[in-house]
Every structure is written in C-alpha cells, then in structure tokens.
Amino acid sequence: MIQDDLRHTRAWVIRPDIQTESNRPAAEPALQEAVALAEALPELDVAGAEIVRLPRARAGVLFGSGKIAELGARLKANEIELVLIDGPVTPVQQRNLEKEWDVKLLDRTGLILEIFADRARTREGVLQVELAALSYQRTRLVRAWTHLERQRGGLGFVGGPGETQIEADRRAIDDAINRIRRQLGKVVKTRELHRAARAKVPFPIVALVGYTNAGKSTLFNRVTGADVLVKDMLFATLDPTMRAVQLPAGREVILSDTVGFISDLPTELVAAFRATLEEVLGADLILHVRDIAHKETHIQAKNVDDILRTLGVDEETPMIEVWNKSDLLGKDDLDAMRAQAARRDDVFVVSALNGAGVGDLLDAIAVRLEDATQACELQLAFDEGRKRAWLFEQGVVQSETQTEDGFVLQVEWTARQQSLYYAM
Asked: What does each of the 424 residues of the chain score in pLDDT, given as a tens digit?
C-alpha cells in the first residue's frame, strides 16, 4: 500500500539534448514521453519539464556550472523534491547533482524500474524487477537500501524516509541478489507447469506486441470482451494476460496481451522479463500494434522490432501490423493511411476504441493462421503413446493407420505445435 507521504512528491523532468550524440531522438517528443513516464507513477506530481541543450556532457556533473545554478534556482522556486533526468546518469553525476540541488535524482533507467516495480503483480514479476533493480544499483552505493523492507509496490527510489546514511555495500547487494535468484529458482517450477498446460491447448497463440500506450489492451478488450486495465498511461499492462477468442470463421485462438516496449529499455529488464514474454517467443502469429497517430510512430516501430530481435523472436514468425488509433486522424490523413495499408497484405488500419476495421483484422488473422499450418507424416512406435495422445489433444491428426511397428499419422500443424512436439 502506497503511503500518504509518497503520493505528492513534486517532480521536475529534464531532457538533456546533447549535441555530440549523433543518433539522439527529437528532443520534444522525447520530453513528452519522459513526462508520460513520470505521470505513470501515481505519487508523482510533475510540476514542470524542460529540454536542456548541451554542447557535450560534463563527466562529473552532466551540466555546466551556469546551467546547474540556473536549474537549481528554478527547482528551489518550485519546491521540487525529485528530478528526473531522461537519459543515463552516472553514479558520480547523480551524487554531485543531488548535493548541488538538495533533491533526489533519478535517471531514465531508474524511473522505468520504479514503474515496473509499481505495476508488477505476479510473484515472478515482482522478484524479477527487484533483481533488475539490484543489478542496476550495484555500482550506485549512494543511497540507503531501505526499499528492500518497504511495503509498497515500488523500489524506494521515489519518496521514502530519506538518505541519511549508506547502509548497503556490494556484499549486501550480492547477498540480496543471491536470495532473489534462489526464490526465482522455485518460481521457475511453477512457470514450467504453466508452460506444460499451455502446450496442451489445441489452439494457435496470437500475441499482441507494441510500443507502450499503443492501445494493445484496448484492442485486447475489444476482441475478447475482457476487462484488462486500460489507461492513457505508459506501462498500464505488465503481467501478460491470455484469453480464448473465437474468430468469425469459427476457429479458436489464444490471444495474449503483453508488456509495452519502449526505447532505451533497461538491459536488465530485457533479460528479466524474457520469461514473461514466452507467449511472444512461442506465438504462431504476432500482432504488432502501432499508434499510427503518434508523430514518432516509425521510430517506435523500429524500437519494437529491435527488442523482438533481442528477445530472440524467430524472424519467420508471421506478423501483422495493426495501425491503431485511426480515430485520432483527420479525414485526409486517414484516407492516406488506408490507401497505404491497402497496398500491403500485412497491415490493417483499425480503431480499437470504436471498433473500426477490427472485423477485417480478425478475418485476416484466421486466413494467416490457416496459411501458417503445414502437413506432415509422422511414424510413432507403440511405446510412444504419450506423443500420440498429445497429437490428438491438439486436434492436428488428419488420418491414422496402424502398421506392424506402430502408427503412421498424417498431421497438419503450426510451427509452434511442431516445435512443442519435438521438444517432448
């Protein structure tokens, strides 16, 4: 339960626009996203935000002395308690700026970790976030480790009793990491049981992926009739949700809603949340949901593709792009988007909010899944009854004949079902 003294921390967001960084994103959209990240934590009150253009980053303090003084005066005038730097900040820079400004300071990675900690609901999700946070903080021995005993969902970077002493060293952190890894080892057994249960489901898996706040959960609710949390807020969904859906053609599929991706996702979280994205790794079809009304939609799409590759998603896995939030486009832009999508067979323009285009998308999913199946002949010995039973449970057996050595089965299955079979 979030304590009262954490609900109204006054925060200021700063986006450093460092001129020496050749691949830096456009500053204004980046600042807007950083503010949205900050607003995703209910206890933060974002009092202001600004872009600070820098010729180069200063090693020990990030900003020049004049800019530090100017920002310090502004922070003091607005009674700011927490500064959020949208970018990487070294431990030395963090310590020096906190001392200069007399505030707490959090960089982009720390903020994302805090949001994930606040949202994680499953036991594994909570443990993985804490493990990622410990790995991130291992070199940042500048704050007390009181968050390990706190009762709220977050990590303690925001708010809390203060930083009067350094209570943790590398040994304490390593002990905590080892403890969490042992706990995760026990949770793995539960996850394996869940995976085994999913393997028995005779339906293809369709996974929703996309940049955070692209409207995946709204589309999920539209299609399934479920009641997944939907907010105009980054990372509204963290723990994956799965529902059975009957397509208009009558075929049943499992639809999976997943955590939203984001640029500069902390590497600790890419590794930590790989397990929660197993539905994507094993999906028969991926729906890449895009906020087509967002001015940075192409950059967001590239970020999603990059993370999918990092996670090890098979490039052969069929994918459909869902250009969502068409209701936010003007008529001319909407007509242009529809014309562009019509020239491709893997793009559909929809509005998850009002349902426009969703019917055509569902028809396309059914067709794509039919295309994704392949015929195969299998020979099973008499003592391979478990495999034979599994094939019938999956509903993939088209015909069967008995021979002197066992059974010959004609099957039609998806690549996912094939991989599950050979893993048995």
From this structure: 333 444 589 999 999 999 888 778 888 988 998 998 898 888 899 999 999 999 998 989 999 999 999 999 999 999 999 999 998 898 889 999 999 999 999 999 889 888 888 777 777 778 888 888 888 877 676 543 344 444 445 555 555 544 444 554 678 888 888 998 888 888 767 766 666 665 556 678 899 999 988 999 899 889 988 665 555 555 544 456 778 888 887 778 888 887 777 777 766 666 666 655 666 777 889 999 999 999 889 999 998 898 888 777 877 788 999 999 999 999 999 999 999 999 998 999 999 999 999 999 999 998 888 766 778 899 999 999 999 998 998 888 999 999 999 999 999 887 777 877 887 7
pTM of the model: 0.71
Distance of CA 296 to the CA centre of its chain: 18
Q: Under 8 Å CB-to-CB from 387, ≥6 apart: which residues?
A: 380, 421, 424
Look up the CATH number of the domain holding residue 90: 3.40.50.11060
H-only helix segments in 153-296: 170-199, 216-224, 267-272, 278-281
Same domain, 30 and 47: yes
Whether residue 229 sits in one domain with residue 321: yes
Q: Domain boundary residue among 197, 231, 265?
A: 197
